[in-house]
Amino acid sequence: MRDSQALLAAMTLEEKASLCSGADMWHTKAFERLEIPPIMLTDGPHGLRKQENVDDALGVSVPAVCFPTASALAASWNRDLVHDIGAALGEACKQEGVSVILGPGCNLKRSPLCGRNFEYFSEDPFLSGQMAASHIRGVQSKGIGACVKHFAVNNQETRRMSIDAVVDERALHELYLTGFEIAVREGKPWTVMGAYNQVNGTFCCEHPYLLTSVLRGSWSYQGVVLTDWGAMNQREDALKAGCDLEMPGPRRGNDTRIVEAVQRGSLDKAVLDRAVERLLQLIKTSVENLDPGFHYDPESHHALARRAAAEGAVLLKNEGSLLPLTKESSIAILGRFAKEPRYQGAGSSYINPTRLDNAWDHMRQLAGDAALTYGAGYSPRGDVPDAELICEAMELAHEADIAVVFAGLTDWYEVEGLDREHMWLPPGHDALIEAVAASNPNTVVVLSNGAPVEMPWEENVPAILEGYLGGQAGGSAIAAILFGDINPSGKLSETFSRHLKDHPSQAQFPGGPKTVEYRESLYVGYRFFDSADMDVRFPFGHGLSYTHFTYHDLQCRPHPDIHANAVRVTFRLRNAGDRYGAEVPQVYVRDVDSSLFRPHKELKGFEKVWLEPGEEKQVIIDLNRRAFAYFNPARSTWEVEAGQFEILVGSSSRDIRLNGFVVLPGDAENTPPQAASATYHHPPEDGRFPRNDFAGLYGRPLPSATYTADEAYTLNTSLQDMQTTFIGRLIARMMKRRMDEMVENDPESPNTMLMQAILREAPLRTFMMAGEGITYDLLEALTLMVNGKFMRGLIELRRAKRRAKQT
Q1: Distance from the Cα of residue 672 to its chain's centroid
Q2: E-assigned strands of 240-283?
Q3: Domain 549-673, what fold?
């Protein structure tokens, strides 16, 4: 392939515009005249999801190794492990001729209810960014492009294609952009995916501040920005903002709009040329790294998946050292998940695994002389307690020395496109656990879920192992942990609260129909719970081991080599138990003398350390200037305020083992922003932040969250909001017929639930993806009709059909 500059000079205006949208669902366009080949982009992020049919969005994909989802990987707190998984994904892409894999996702977990939380790493931006950067480096070490997503402030599935996230500047930068910044600066991804939603009134894919000022300006990003599938709103504005590639294709009308905008002078040709040059460079790099004869070893990838599942499992509780299980005990294995594991989430990341382990088979292999019995415990969906299955489980539990219950969230409870409505397990699962715990005091609960759940039975259960969604090898990994062949080392990357209402985001989640207000500002996850001194079920960073560790000899000194406002933290860590294991010491920072509101503590460093029994190591963690800085909206800069900072080293955010203090000179130009209300300096335990206080923090009038009666329908109005009109109901029925045809073979599957959510909530403009004949002009004509301008709309509809035939 020729040099991108030479190709750019040889391309016509029409060819340049055409390159800026996809050829189909998964490919960029090819230009035979210029010998520009297509490249393929496919879903990830925890396995390769390459569709057998290029026009299919959610159909059958080629077999691939299914690794644990991001929620489990983050719980490993192991950068090297996540890098290795990224490299394995790169190898799978190389075998299948895929150039870019769509992942990782590093959106912050603002609420435990987000239906896509299983695909995201953490409630903490530093941990999210570190995991994402490692993932990216791993993928790209194999000559395959990673795509960090979804940029930015994409923290819910409800109305995800249109909702406007209203967030103050400090929270935007200190929480919601920081993970992406670390991923971009340290991982250097080939591509970044713009999110569906709006941020402070502007769609992400045409957001000049996010894409130009921040991403390409402050962070010096040089790669390609592409849309999420169907996220494009105004194509000209998106190009100006820095969004290069619109996916999927073909985009009926937008290529022509680019040409027309350049010809009339509203779009600078240089802007288009820069986008095309970035795309040509991506294609050239991708083609140079193709290796048609390459094949990866699925067995070694399966072994890596097992290691990842084991490291991502978190031992939440182990009273009386009930675990590990002894091989001389009688054990009742209860719960359908033991034989039919829940190992991944539903939606665009759904992987067709090369094989699938289950815990029952592997526990039988490891049990030795132990007597194992099995009871299903609940129905496949678990929505209603099954009295017969529960009675059987109680009898088996009563007769056994130990009962192990496998429970969690079913496929119908965690689906892309749908947020959860609560944090409960399916009623059949809760009922089984409560009944078994009443029958046998030695009950172990093993959970399979992508996000936190409430545990009303926790006090009656002595041992709980959180397995998350462990991928195709999760069953064997869990079995090895239960019997002690593997020592658990996972740590929670998110807080498990006692109740959903405890989260400050809950009062404004999911908001809508137009906006969602992020009134809690910086107080997300442990930042709120620790600042408000609220009791939680299990804190951020928590995780037990079959051994135990001691910390001592903390020293906090100015860093010898870098900026004055930087600190080197050293301490010694010892395995004081009798088993080989790993600990994750976490370094938090507290601004003691701050004149502005800040959370009580914030994670700024961590390391995973493996130690033999009795072994001791020195741990060194460097904290750079950003570890102590806040974002100043008045100056659009990161600044360090002079004064005292406390360094806290612990095994979780609530288990602090060592602390020390440093005094930093701060920045000479430091000018703290306008003070916030007392509510933000002392967050209320009920998590309620008044709208007036948030308006003061936001710094400008808050937009209305609802539609007014006289507000016109637009291409960004969803079908559910148009159904108050006759034409809107007709369109909805037409689209529903198409949707029913697509899912007629599986009407109650999680993917069907996703498709139904898309039908309800997708803006009208996205239906250009629904099939041939639906053009931008046609949708604009329908919008006129929905707004009561029936005759004018009918005339434009006929014109749109004629233009479609001509093209």
Answers
A1: 32
A2: none
A3: Immunoglobulin-like (2.60.40)
Direct distance between the N- and C-terminal alpha carbons of the chain, in angstroms, rounded to an integer: 30
Compute the distance between CA of residue 99 and CA of residue 93 in angstroms, rounded to an integer: 7
Q: 95 vs 53, which has greater pLDDT?
A: 95
Residues 6+ apart with CB under 8 A from 711: none
- The model scores a pTM over 0.90: yes
Cβ–Cβ under 8 Å, residues 121 and 103: no
Classify residue 700 by burial, with Cβ atoms within 10 Å: 0-12, 13-18, 19+: exposed
Backbone angles phi, psi at 219, to 5 degrees: -95, -5
| H or E segment to which residue 679 belongs | helix 678-681
Tokens of 718: 């969803």
Out of 228, 237, 502, 721, which one is annotated catalytic?
Answer: 228
Q: How confident is the model at residue 505 (pLDDT cuts 50, 70, 90)?
A: very high
E strands present in 105-263: 145-151, 164-166, 191-194, 198-199, 202-203, 224-227
Choose between 207 and 748: higher pLDDT. Answer: 207
Element (H, E) at 639: strand 637-639
pLDDT tens per residue across span 731-755? 888 777 877 776 666 777 888 888 8
- The confidence band for 772, taking pLDDT boundaries of 50, 70 and 90, is low
Establish whether 228 is a catalytic residue. yes
Amino acid making up residue 697: L
| Residue 194 neighbours by CB under 8 Å, 6+ apart | 150, 151, 204, 205, 207, 211, 225, 226, 227, 228, 231, 243
> Phi first, then psi: what are they for 772, rounded to 5°?
-60, 145
Q: Where in the chain is the domain with CATH 3.40.50.1700?
A: 300-494
CATH 2.60.40.10 in the chain is located at 549-673
Q: Which CATH class is domain 300-494?
A: alpha beta
